[in-house]
Automatic annotation (TrEMBL):
This is RND multidrug efflux transporter Acriflavin resistance protein. Keywords: Membrane, Transmembrane, Transmembrane helix. Pfam families: ACR_tran (PF00873). The chain crosses the membrane at residues 110-136, 143-163, 169-193, 214-238, 244-272, 318-336, 654-671, 678-700, 706-729, 757-780, 800-820. It comes from hydrothermal vent metagenome. One of its GO terms (cellular component) is plasma membrane.
Length: 912
């Protein structure tokens, strides 16, 4: 109340007005009559209680309180989980007996499980790569190749540490993806050095020569692979942020592998490579060394069969190309005639789900609680569920829920290996809750990747709000009744319900000297109560409201009508001044780009119940688009498909742009390497072959085309498949530079480089095979896990890489040699054609000339073919003409036919 200065000092003055206890409220006066005072204690009971319950939570059928802990961005979720558990266990020691606690929806456990699964997948891939290397090269070369894996990984993790990045799912798969790829450079270096050692070169000289000869091919192949992943760094949006770690990890790891292959590996090879070579092995190696030693007949085994088959095809380029193009074209035709469907993200076995309970009407919180408990009792006995969390009043859901949701159950499923499929669990839940009338039950799987919403998401907008409700109703009826194979249909139309609107007759109230301020508390007495103040007890940190309200059994409009208010004319019933009426609930109006809108969502059933065949969301979206386009709608109404469909379209558009950018970068790199547009064209043609292989793989496995995962596979595959062509073309160009004819050069190239091509292809395929097959081998626990959710993420991407690389590599070993030699073969064949035409024309001329001489009476005998050195008249066969050659005199000129390496060469030489 201020301070008082008495002249002798200043003193603070306090007037106690703070309510500190319930007794203070009891003693508050509310009316006086003479000497009589009426206090609150005379007309009311006062008790400390809770607010009306608006939130209910139960865990596994028992009332519970839930404490949710969320990690900050960039924090380590595993360490956070461990800290929370440690603090909880320490605190639980002082809790009352009978109070239980448990941990639910722990993302750290899922992360550890996924990390462990991916860890074993990396180890499995490494083991398979080393086994393949041992089988094809031997133990020492395989160990040298295997050394590049930990060295590359170590440098990659040092980079992650330097950049402050933590290990996540994308980084782990980046390691799996690069296990088979990062050894490519090491394989090329070691294989070339091993071949030179077999030819008699010392191991030190062999690795020095290998590094010198293979530097540019390896640099080009690594650069083209990186060029395929670099455009993925520019991926916009949430999906781009989600996927960005994958190209980063691939780029860093492959760069580290190049450094390892060019610097560390030659040093190690010069010290530990073998020194002894058997005579048989040396003879076999020398048969492939140089054109003067090259002998096709000495090449044995599968390599010999391949080279001889290639020799047959090389001489018939048109036939070979027709067969190859027909094979590729037939795959495209087969896929487009039998598409396997398209999805944004692959379907992942969920670990969490939400059971959304929907209802329409003015349910009270207690009624909603009772409904949720009925659903909870139906769900709890379902096998395969670890925890069931009932929520009302706060969403707490692991996925977005419909607008008319009145409550939900959060489900955490048991570990994948200990339960049946989630689809079977959800089917049983739907069956058990189907008989709960008055509400709807919708199962929503937690989205593991970027959110895309339901399979079908349609936004209907208009400048006229009145057009929306009938349009949405019409579209929903089509989706539910005619589109077929749709479930969990929802829309955002206003929910049916009523609000009570109380209107005060201000004019009549004014006649009695009262107004809204005096009448409003009477209405609050039957609702939430009249707030008359607040106080803070000693045992609380926050202030508590002091509210006056009628007893629970008297809170009704009939009681409100019976209440009397003091006016200038005395006590008058409140009902004389107020009118109440029920009105529809006021809807939430949503706008998008200045237009009113409502949305419709639906999921697509996994399989057609009649045929059992898979049903794909994209097919249903296309059907819905076609139906919308065929109907007549109000002029102001517009339709926009969003969610998974929009995500798919945006992803496809970006993938096309990324593919074009990657091809352009590879074009520049290859043109710098080969300095030949034709050879660049040959190299990039393998990308088309690989795409056909991807489609063939999807046809065989029946997997749908994942716009994101398969799209990444195709773009990244473009940078991998060209490596084989680079190795072949580089060796071919080097041999051609040594004046080796094209056919011999390509056969030598095939004989020398087939092994590294096959080895790099097989190691890459085997590195990805565990993911493609969904297999994770726990070497320490001695168990094999098949179809784990952590691997299902990458099945589409791995399958695309495996099938595309396998198919394109086989065609590369055939079509690339054919295309390299085709120009010289066709040029020779055209030359022979002209020569044959010339001989025919000359023969015809001789016939006409002989006929003319007969008729002129001056017949002249044609000069017969003579052996060399013989003469006839003044004509002598030149001494330097081989006896196997034909020599024909025509007008004092000799035509000489010579067969060289199976090709007939015709030359003209003056007769002597």
């Amino acid at each position: 109340a201020g301070a008082l200065d008495t002249g002798k000092g200043q003193f603070s003055v306090e007037v106690p007005g703070l309510i500190q206890t319930a007794r203070d409220v009891y003693n508050l006066p509310i009316k006086t009559d003479g000497d009589s005072v009426v206090t609150f204690s005379d007309v009311a009971t006062i008790q400390r209680t809770f607010k009306d319950a608006t939130v209910f939570t139960r865990v596994n059928g028992k009332p519970a309180l839930i404490l949710s802990v969320n990690k900050r961005s960039g924090a380590n979720i595993v360490k956070l989980s461990q800290a929370v558990r440690q603090i909880t266990e320490e605190s639980a020691k002082s809790w009352p007996v009978g109070l239980e606690h448990s941990y639910m929806l722990d993302q750290a456990a899922i992360a550890l499980n996924m990390f462990g699964s991916l860890q074993f997948s990396v180890l499995t891939a490494v083991v398979l790569v080393i086994i393949v290397s041992v089988a094809l090269l031997g133990i020492r070369p395989a160990l040298m190749i295997g050394l590049s894996i930990p060295l590359s990984f170590m440098m990659a993790f040092l980079f992650l540490q330097f950049m402050g990045m933590t290990v996540n799912m994308m980084i782990m798969f980046g390691l799996i993806l690069t296990v088979g790829m990062l050894v490519d450079a090491a394989i090329v270096v070691v294989e070339y050095a091993e071949r030179k050692i077999s030819e008699g070169m010392s191991r030190k000289e062999a690795f020095i020569r290998s590094t010198r000869m293979m530097f540019w091919p390896i640099a080009s192949s690594t650069a083209t692979t990186l060029a395929a992943f670099m455009p993925l760094l520019l991926w916009p949006g949430i999906v781009g942020k989600f996927m960005s770690y994958l190209p980063i990890m691939v780029i860093v790891t492959l760069t580290a592998s190049f450094i390892t292959a060019m610097i560390f590996l030659p040093v190690v090879g010069g010290l530990v490579a073998r020194t002894k070579v058997s005579k048989k092995e040396k003879d076999a190696a020398m048969a492939l060394n140089g054109s003067e030693h090259f002998d096709l007949s000495k090449i044995k085994g599968m390599l010999g069969l391949y080279v001889r088959f290639l020799a047959f095809l090389v001489k018939r380029p048109l036939f070979s190309l027709i067969i190859g193009i027909s094979l590729i074209g037939s795959i495209y035709v087969a896929y487009f005639n039998n598409p396997t469907g398209m999805v944004a993200f692959p379907k992942i076995e969920p670990q969490y789900a939400t059971v959304a309970i929907t209802g329409r009407g003015n349910y009270s919180p207690v009624q909603i609680r009772d409904i949720l408990i009925r659903v909870e009792k139906a769900v709890l006995p379902v096998a395969g569920i670890k925890d069931v969390v009932l929520n009302f009043g706060s969403t707490g859901a692991v996925a977005s829920v419909p607008n008319d949701t009145i409550g939900n159950l959060q489900l955490e499923l048991a570990p994948y290996k200990d339960r049946r499929k989630a689809s079977e669990i959800f089917a049983e839940i739907r069956q058990r809750t189907a008989n709960i009338y008055g509400v709807g039950v919708e199962l929503i799987k937690a989205e593991e990747g970027p959110p895309t919403g339901k399979d079908i998401n349609l936004r209907i907008s208009s400048t006229n709000y009145d057009d929306l409700i009938p349009t949405v109703t019409r579209v929903r009826n089509f989706i539910e009744n005619k589109l077929g194979n749709t479930i969990d249909v929802e829309d955002s139309r206003p929910l049916p319900g009523i609000d009570w609107k109380v209107t005060i007759d201000r004019e009549k109230a004014a006649r009695f000297g009262i107004g809204v301020r005096e009448l409003s508390p009477y209405v609050q007495l039957v609702t939430t109560g009249v707030n008359i103040g607040s106080y803070r007890p000693n045992d609380a940190n926050d202030e508590l409201d002091i509210r006056v309200r009628l007893p629970k059994n008297e809170r009704s409009f009939s009681v409100l009508d019976s209440l009397h208010i003091v006016t200038s004319a005395g006590l008058v019933p409140v009902s004389n001044f107020i009118k109440r009426r029920a009105v529809p609930k006021v809807p939430n109006v949503k706008r998008w780009d200045s237009r009113f809108y409502m949305s419709i969502g639906a999921n697509v059933a996994g399989n057609n119940p009649k045929t059992g065949t898979p049903v794909f969301a994209q097919d249903k979206v296309d059907q819905l688009k076609a139906w919308v386009a065929s109907q007549t709608w109000p002029k102001a109404v517009g339709f926009t498909f969003s969610g998974a469909d929009k995500q798919t379209q945006e992803t496809n558009q970006f993938m096309i742009q990324a593919g074009i950018g990657a091809l352009f970068l590879m074009f520049l790199i290859l043109l710098t390497q080969f300095n030949s547009f034709y050879q660049v064209f040959i190299t990039l043609s393998t990308v088309i072959m690989s795409t056909a292989g991807v489609l063939l793989g999807m046809l065989i496995t029946g997997q749908p085309f994942s716009a994101i995962m398969t799209g990444i596979g195709i773009v990244s595959l473009a940078g991998v498949v060209v490596n084989n062509s680079i190795v072949l073309i580089d060796t071919f160009n080097r041999l051609r530079g040594e004046d080796v004819d094209p056919v011999t050069a390509i056969l030598m190239t095939a004989a020398q480089r087939t092994r590294p091509v096959i080895l790099t292809t097989v190691t890459t395929i085997f590195g990805l095979l565990p993911m493609a097959l969904g297999i994770s081998i726990n070497f320490f626990g001695r168990s094999i896990e098949i179809g784990a959710p952590s691997g299902a993420w990458w099945t589409s991407l791995s399958t695309a890489l495996v099938s595309g690389l396998a198919f394109s590599s086989l065609l590369t070993l055939v079509l690339v040699p054919v295309l390299l030699t085709a120009p010289s073969i066709w040029k020779t064949q055209i030359g022979n054609g002209w020569a044959r035409s010339g001989r025919i024309i000359m023969a015809i001329g001789r016939i006409f000339g002989a006929s003319g001489r007969i008729f002129a009476g001056r017949r002249k005998q044609a000069t017969p073919l003579k052996a060399k050195g013989q003469t006839r008249g003044q004509i002598e066969i030149p001494q330097d003409i081989d006896s196997a050659q034909r020599y024909i005199e025509v007008d004092k000129t000799g035509l000489v036919e010579t067969e060289r390496n199976g090709v007939i060469v015709v030359s003209r030489q003056a007769a002597e």
